[in-house]
Every structure is written in C-alpha cells, then in structure tokens.
Amino acid sequence: MDQSKNTGDKLGFWSIVFLAINSIIGSGIFLTPGSVVSQAGSKALIVYFIAALFASVLAISFSAAAKYVTKSGASYAYSKAAFGNNMGFYVGILRYFSASVAWGVMAVGVIKSTISIFGGNPDNFLNVTIGFLILMLLVTVINLFGQKFVKFVMNMATVGKLAALILIIVAGVVLLITTGATHSLSSVDQITQNGHKIVPALTTTGFVMAVVSAFYAFTGFESVASGSEDMQEPEKNLPKAIPLAILVIAAIYIGVVAVAMVLDPKSLMTTKQVVAISAIFKNEVLRDIILVGALISMLGINVASSFNAPRILEAMAREHQLSATLTKRTKNNFPIKTFFISEALAVLVPLSFQFNMTNLITLSAMVRFLGFIIVPLAVICFYYGKNKQPILPAPKNVVTDIFVPILSIVLVIFLLVKYNWQAQFGIIENGQVVGVNWYAIIMMIFGFVILPLFMFWFSRKERNEQQ
Fold this sequence. Notes:
It contains 18 helices and four strands.
C-alpha cells in the first residue's frame, strides 16, 4: 500500500496556508526592514505594498497551474506537463538543486544569527560548522518522526512567528499611545547620522531597487506546491491557500514596518543588532520575546525547506525520470532517500563555500526567476490546450490563466532588467565593484549546465524505459 495516500497524514487547507506562511516568512522581516527603509524612506510602506502585489500576481499564476496539475514538484510538474519530458527534467534538476542549496543557506542563516544574538562570533568557521550540523540533525529527527509530526512542528512554528510579529505591532501601537510619540512617516527622510541624511534622494532606480529588495521577503510561495501529493485536494486548496497566505503576510509586514517607522526609525536603520526589528524597543523582556520569535521563524522555514526539497526529487522519480528507489518511504510516511540526498547537498555545498552567503544565494535566486517565467507560460499552454502531457479538466478563466500570467512575465522581465547583476557577480568593496566573483559564476555554470547534463546522462536508463 502506498502510504502517501493516507489521507490522515496529508495537509489540509489551513495546514497548507501555514506551510505557505512558513515558507515565505523567514528571517527577512526580522532582519532586513531597515535596509528597505534606508532605501525608500517615507515611501517604504508603498514599496512593501507594491512588492506584495508583485508576489500576489506571481502566486496567482502558480495557483492557476496547481488546478491543472496536482502532482508534486511544483514548477517541475507544471513545465513537464506543458513542455514535455526534457524541459521538465531540466527545470526539475535546477529547482531541486536550488531548493537544497536554499535549505542550506537558511540553516547557515539560523546559526549565524543565533551565535550573534548570544554574543558569539558568527564568522568563526568551527562554531558555525558545529551549530550547522546540530541544526541539521535536529531537522532530521523532526522529519524521522513522520509527516504528522512535521505538520505539527510547521504549524507551531507558524503560530510562533506570527505571534512575535503581531506582538511587535500591538506593543508598538501601545507605546505610541502611551508615550505620545510624534514621528511621522515623512520625517524619516530627514533623519541624519554623522551629519548626513541616511535616506538618499529617491530616484526611479532607487525606488525599483527598494521594491526588488522588499519582493524577496515574499518569495517562497513558489515551493509550496512541491509536495502537493501530500496535500488534501491540492487542485482546490492550493489556489485558495497561497493567495490567502500572501494577503496575511502583506498585512503583517506593512503593520510591522509602519510601527517601526513611527516608533524609532533611526534605530531601525542604524542598529548593529542581528534582529534589526527588535532595536525599536527599549524594554529588554520585549526584545527577548522578539528574538525568540525570530529564532522560531528561522527554525520553521528550515523545517518547511526540509519538507519541500526532497519531494521535488521524489516527484521526478515517481514520473520515472529518476530511479524508482527514490520513492521509498518509511512507515511514518517519511521520504527517506530523497531527504538524505537533499540534506547532503544542503550540508556539503555551504561547507565547500565556507558558509559564504552571497555565493550560495546566487543560484537559488536565478532559478526562482526561471520558474517565474516558465510557470506562467505553462498556464497559458494549459488554457489553450497546447500541453504536451495530460492535465486535469479544470475550469478555465481568462483572467487567472491568460491576463495574470502575461502580467507575471512582464513583471519578472522588468525585475531582471533592474536586477543588480554587478552585486551578484562582482566583488564589492565600499560600494564599488573591485573584481569578479568567480565562485558565483562557477556555481551558476555548475547548476545550470554541468549538473543537469550529468543527471541527464545518469538517468538515461529510466528515461529510455519511460519512452
């Protein structure tokens, strides 16, 4: 009996919403709102609103794809159904490798943040390595208990991180009322440090870059459907759950940033604390609660990553594009082989790059952009019946299946044009490009060319049998 069919183990609607929230809300809103405010000043709330709209448009395209294809794998399953086996295989390998590396990146982020919070040196290689391995062991134990326990941990982590963020909003509002703070949003643009304004004069390019920075706080929705075969009625629940999750997240993000900008914007923009958002509060107990919430958030997104990444590889095996042995699960419905392969990548790649976050993020970011173009194109193919493989007879909608995907593609191209490529592939010192980041370039060549070619050759037997 295929234990993946056990309905009791599968994620229901609200668990999918929690998974989406968990996959999107990570460390970003706790650590980086100061950088967005520093770029956009008084327009920061508008920036977050526009970023949320961008994410919502893209999420609708992914949700539309989910009603036609409910197999696990997300962008892999959609591209395979729309464009055939070869394109599906290429996208699947890229997406899997990216998801595994992203899991490792987030694990490194958790450890470095934790070490910093407790006063240690986050750049000490030995300390980070020990903490990194302990965290991955903890995530492994959580998964070994089975899908029900993973679902429980993810739900609890989501509740914990939402509670911390709501606490920031409520405590901030109470402080504003009781202290009579008078900071206005417009005054943020006039704040100075060492005699110079922190927020530069806002240009069109600067505004766009601020939107791009804020947009990354909403990414993660594209991986939610990776384990759709472990969800109840994904064709009905995913199209509702993902947009709802983004709506909830947008409201919380905007509320948190608004409170911070009115309460103590200078501390938000200038603090050296790792969890930047906690700097707006002077009360130590309140700051400690927020720090705990940030750590819970980071743990939660690691568990979500450990759920999503293995299921991409498993989905490819179920489609007979990789060895069928990769579909093996334990009695607790745990995808044991694909999990440990994914975990090995998540550990070894960051170790090989000595936990250099910039180099590790490169490939993950680029593959996301690729998926943001391919999936909307796939939805358009589904609408017009041009798909290469069978899909579900889902109700068609010209708005969600044509207009929104076209808008998604236009927005992604716009983001790519405005993307800071120099920062991604250059070595930056004092704001200037002083060299070429060969590690990042090699990572891109490996991820986009070498690995897919190797896996294509390695899986030739399975693919020939499928044909």
